[in-house]
Amino acid sequence: MYIKDFSSSSVMNCCMVNALGPMELTGKLLRHELLATPDENLTVLAISSWLGSISQKSFAGHYGYAGSKALLNMCMKGLALEFCKIAPHWTAVALNPGWMSTDMGGNTAEFNPRQVAAAIYAMVQDQAFIQSKNGKFVNVMDRTEHPW
Question: 120: part of which helix (H) or strand (E)?
Answer without folding.
Answer: helix 113-125
